[in-house]
Amino acid sequence: MSASQGGILELDDIQSGALFERPSPYVGTYLLLRVDDRSAGRELVRRLHSVAQSQRASGHSSQGTSLTVAFTYQGLKALGVPQASLDSFAPEFRVGMAARADHLGDVGDSSPQNWEYPLGTDQVHVAVAALSPDSTQHQLAVDKARRARRELGGIELVWSQDCYQLPTGRTSFGFKDGIGQPTIEGLGRPGVNTRGRPLKAGEIILGYPDESGELPPMPTPEILGRNGTYVVFRKLHTRVAAYRRYLAAKSSSRAEEALLGAKMVGRWQSGAPLALAPEQDDPDLGSDPVRNDDFLYGDDPRGFKCPVGAHARRANPRDAFDGDASVDVRLHRMIRRGTSYGPMLPDGVLEDDGVDRGIIFVFAGAHLRRQFEFVKTQWLNDGIFIGAPREKDPLVGGNDGSGHFTIPQHPIRRRLQDLPPFVTTRGGEYCFAPGLRGMRWLAELDS
């Protein structure tokens, strides 16, 4: 099928990690590899392709072990992809995340000079994510990937990170994560938000019409670009003790701490949205995957239930811009995956224990600039769109200790002052996850 024809999603060619929900709970490992020998690199891709293809054939999409493979620009170059093809990728992908750091707000402690080596350098070529609901299955998958690397001279493992999702779905800050993913047209799965239509497949997977009705720019040749997606990988260290101390300092009781945290995030720790539970937590609502995402913000324009500057509302304003023809929220939707790493800080602990913990953030979509980069710079790191230019996202924004956060309430609003940084970027990469046919094409290159 020609890319110009769009068409029905070719699910048998799309890597499972690009579209399908992850199992819950799960354990996982991210591996980053460097290709020093082109022939060995192509053989590695052939073996990884064989594993990924067998998973798709057996239907392992959301409940079994999944292996997702992606490549940086330097990785595609190391494999011998022709320059004309390399030049057809998105400019942001070609220069890499480190070169975009100032634009993304990765400055100060989050700047590339402070990233974990070799993140952000030309030493990262291949990214492999192995996830499984079962630790035994997971270890077998990781061992298989490591064994394939060891058997091939000229391939080096340069970085790895174990990760997990708890049965509660909560991350190190204590909030349930992974809620609010877009429903993709053609995937054959009903959406949980009954108030919105499915997102066009071309917003996530290349080779299909997107929300504009057009085909997004796609890398060439077609066999490489079609059914692929761009992947953003970021390691984010969370300053949990500092976050807890800030809430405690601004509150007079544990109940007020919980409410203040919910106001900053836009949801209670259980996952219950403030839009539906503005006064107190509702764990039953938070644990209901149908109800906890079935809401809009149109009936709360001033943010008395959920502040307009809250993290969840910034990242997905939903219907907040209805009537404003200059902003189409659907053009900035993306698939987001948050995976915890490091042990949780025990409840009640207010001092940093020196242990590295946080979130491996993964984004998948067809447009690096107008999806991930737009949301990061225009909605999370800026407040112009909510009428508060100096305000950044209170949880993940690039705050430096001088920022503030406004909570609308009667009779007068409350403004939190001196917001410190609660999240520090430890590194990241822009990658491309091709379809299975694209992986085979890479493995069979003979240049």
UniProtKB/TrEMBL annotation:
PROSITE patterns: DYP_PEROXIDASE. Belongs to the DyP-type peroxidase family. PANTHER family: BLR4509 PROTEIN, DEFERROCHELATASE/PEROXIDASE. InterPro entries: Dimeric_a/b-barrel, DyP_N, Dyp_peroxidase. Pfam families: DyP_N. Keywords: Iron, Metal-binding, Oxidoreductase, Peroxidase. Its cofactor is heme b. Residues 53-135 form the DyP dimeric alpha+beta barrel domain. Transmembrane segments: none annotated. This is Dyp-type peroxidase. GO terms for molecular function: peroxidase activity. It comes from Terrabacter ginsenosidimutans.
